[in-house]
Each structure stands twice: as C-alpha cells, then as structure tokens.
Specification:
Keywords: Signal. The chain is mostly beta strands and about 150 residues long. It has 1 helix and 8 strands; from the N terminus they run H-E-E-E-E-E-E-E-E. The protein has an 8-stranded antiparallel barrel with strand order 1-2-3-4-5-6-7-8. Strand 3 and strand 4 form a beta hairpin.
C-alpha cells in the first residue's frame, strides 16, 4: 500500500510540474526551454532507415526570436561524421529552419527542419532535403534550461 501511495504521489507531482512548466498555448511558450545540450538519434525515412547518434546545442535569442542549432552526428563507419549549424525562427512553439538558413557555409546542401518541445526533457524534429527526409529525437543532457 505504501508503494502505491508513493507512486501515486510521484505521478501527481510530475503532472503538476508539467502543467506549471508547459504553457497552455504556443504564444505563451518560453523559447528558453530549448536552451542547452541535448543528445539523441537521427533516423532517415529512406528505405535503408539509416540512423546515427546526434548531439545538439540549442541557443535561443529572445531579442530576435531565433534559435541557433548546432548538431554533431557520430555515425558508425563507413558513414562519415557530420556537423551543421542552422538558425531558425521560433514560431508557434516550434523552431522552423528553412533551407537557405541551414548548413551555413555550404552550397547546395540545404535542409528544411522543424523542432518542437514534447516536454522539458524531450525535443522531436523532422527534416527534409534533396537526398531524403527523416526524424530527430533529443533528450536533455544538462540542467541548463530545464
């Protein structure tokens, strides 16, 4: 009985904290919840479903309502490592990166991306470029921004 009460108490506490942290509408959403270092996985929608571990740093700027996203992909050989830096607009609770704003410093290798916060500890995203499309999932690895 004590274990059930403890589990119920923990569940209620977690739900209350989520309701107080996450906004009711996207307009109230705090861009700074994205701030910090995250780690996760990239998965391609291509037939082979390539995937790789990915690390990311999200750096919001409240004055310009933009977020800089730096990602480092560490795939298993023979696939090469990959890194990118993109700047996205923050709209309706999502980070939107159009093709010209992605892969800064490269030519004709642009990608459209979108990221959203599922909860303070989980970011999901999608991407699409001339080669394929797929998804991202990141979990928070630091207390910064949490």
């Amino acid at each position: 009985m004590l274990k059930k009460n403890a589990a119920l108490s923990l569940t209620v506490s977690l739900l209350i904290s989520l309701f107080t942290v996450l906004p009711a509408t996207a307009e109230e959403f705090n861009i700074m919840l994205f701030q910090g270092i995250w780690t996760g996985k990239w998965v391609s929608d291509a037939p082979k479903h390539d995937n790789a571990p990915v690390h990311a740093a999200f750096a919001p700027d409240t004055e310009t309502n933009t977020v800089t996203v730096v990602m480092f992909q560490t795939p298993e050989p023979p696939a090469p490592p990959y890194s990118s830096m993109s700047i996205g607009k923050f709209e309706n609770g999502k980070i939107l990166i159009d093709a010209p704003s992605s892969d800064i410093g490269t030519l004709d290798n642009s990608t459209e991306m979108m990221f959203w916060l599922v909860n303070p500890l989980l970011i999901r995203g999608t991407y699409k470029n001339k080669y394929d499309s797929g998804t991202f999932e990141f979990k928070r690895t630091s207390k910064e921004g949490a």
